[in-house]
Amino acid sequence: MTSRLNPYLSFDGDAREAMEFYAQVFGGTLSLNTFGESGMPDSAYTDKIMHALLETPSGFTLMASDTPPGMEYAPGTNFSVSLSGDDAGELRGYWEKLSADGTVAVPLEKQMWGDVFGMCTDRFGVPWMVNISEPAG
């Protein structure tokens, strides 16, 4: 898998509706994963979207989630740029450069879903998400 760069949108509880709308607009395949499916205990967020992925026939990729509890939702700043793939060396190199002189919100480390993931804001104020998956076997 090559590395991928795409927008990652955050929503205030309506990510499912928004991503279903974008799937109608652009076509393609939409996958939705809820907080409950990831092991979050029963709460108001059990059925909210932890991660959504839309891949279109035109080659567009759009990712999204509902803003998790404890994180601020701020309309107008509800996006990140996502870097993902399975080339750990390449993606860690991007992470090091993007996070240098920036702010790390989530350190780049193994997460409960099994991937290595981190979030940072670069020195120009652009938020980034880096996700490193295991190479397909």
UniProtKB/TrEMBL annotation:
<dbReference type="InterPro" id="IPR004360">
    <property type="entry name" value="Glyas_Fos-R_dOase_dom"/>
</dbReference>
<dbReference type="Pfam" id="PF00903">
    <property type="entry name" value="Glyoxalase"/>
</dbReference>
<feature type="domain" description="Glyoxalase/fosfomycin resistance/dioxygenase">
    <location>
        <begin position="4"/>
        <end position="130"/>
    </location>
</feature>
<dbReference type="InterPro" id="IPR028973">
    <property type="entry name" value="PhnB-like"/>
</dbReference>
<dbReference type="InterPro" id="IPR029068">
    <property type="entry name" value="Glyas_Bleomycin-R_OHBP_Dase"/>
</dbReference>
<protein>
    <submittedName>
        <fullName>VOC family protein</fullName>
    </submittedName>
</protein>
